[in-house]
Amino acid sequence: MEIFDLAPVKFGSGKMLILDQTLLPGREVYIEMKTKEDVWEAIKKLRVRGAPAIGVAAAYGMYVAAGNFSAEAEQDLAVFGAELREAAAYLESARPTAVNLAWAVKRMVKAFDAAAPDTAESARQTLFDEAEKIRREDEAACYAMGEYGLSLLKPGMGILTHCNAGTIATAKYGTCLAPIYLGQAQGYGFHVFADETRPLLQGARLTAWELHRSGVDVTLICDNMASIVMRNGWIDAVVVGCDRMAANGDGANKIGTSGVAILAKEYGIPFYMFVPTSTIDLDTQTGDDIPIEFRDGDEIGTMWYERPMAPAGVKTYNPSFDVTPAEYITAVITEKGIVRPPYKENLAALKTEERNVNGK
Ligand code: MRU
After folding, report:
1. Residues labelled as active-site residues
2. Distance 243 CA to ligand 1 centre (A)
3. Taking the model in full, what pTM does it have?
C-alpha cells in the first residue's frame, strides 16, 4: 500500500529524517535531525509520535548524538560511554508515558556495552546497527500483531478506534491498524469509525487520513459520539494502541481511551488493546504507577481555532493519556500472540519467554 512508503523515521545517505506529523494531513514534509536536540524537540512537539515510532526515533537519535560527541570521546571509549548515557537520559526526558522511549535508549546503551568497541567509529556502527534492528523488529512485530488481530475480526465488521496507532505511529503497518490494513488487502470490507481524539486530533488528522488514503471505509466522529455509534449497533469491536502496559494489564493510551473502554463494556463490545512487547513494562506494577504526561493548556483553548475559544487565563487540565484498567480489556494483542486474563500471570510468562529467547 502506498501509505507504507511514508515511514515516520527514515535513514538514508547518512541523514536521519522524520515525517513532521504536525503538518499532516495537509503537507507531507520530512525534516532532517542533525543533533540530539533536534530529536528531543521532534518527540516533545509530536512531530514524531506514537509509542513505537518514538522508540525508533530515539534509537536513531542516539546514533545522531554520537556523531556530535566531544573530541575526548573520539579518543577514549569510557568518555564515549559516559556521553552516550547522558544522551540517553536527555532523550528519555522528552516524553514520560510511552515506555518505548526509555526502552529504546536503554537498549542502545546496552548494545554499546555488550559490543565493547575499541574505536569511536566502530561504536557508532554498533549504534546504527542496533537502531536498524529496533526498526526492523518493530515492523515485524506490527505485521504479526496484524495477523493475530485479524484472527479476532470478521469481514464486514464495524470497528471503532481512538487516536492513531497506524503505520506512521510505528516502523510500519501500525499496531491496532495493522489488522485493518491486512483485512483490507484480503477484501474484509471493514467499516472503521475514527474518534477525532481531542485535543491534538490524531484521529482526524492521522487515522482518518491514513485509512481514507488507503481506501478503507472510514467515518470520522467526534469523541463524544462513540456512545451513539455503539448504541446504533455499528461497532463490533474496539481496537486501540498502547503507550505503556503495566504488569497487571492496566494500559495507558491516548486520553479518552478509558472512556471508550467503559462504554464498550456497557454495550458488550470486545475491547482489544494492541501492545508490542516493547510496550509492556513489568517494572511498572499497576496503572497508578504509570507517569502521565501533562501538556500545555493552549492545546485545549486556542490551538486549532482562528480565535481563542476559551477565556484568556482560564485554568486548564490537559493530561495526554489515561489508563484503561485491565478489567476493561478483552484481550491484549502482542507480536507473540493474544494474551487473555489473568494478565499479571500471562504477561509475565510472555516476557519471560521473550527474555529466554532474545536475552532482552
Ligand atoms: O501523543 P501521541 O500521539 O504520541 O499518542 C499516541 C497514542 O496514544 C497511541 O495510541 C499509542 O502510542 C500507540 S501507537 C502504535
Report:
1. 243
2. 6
3. 0.97
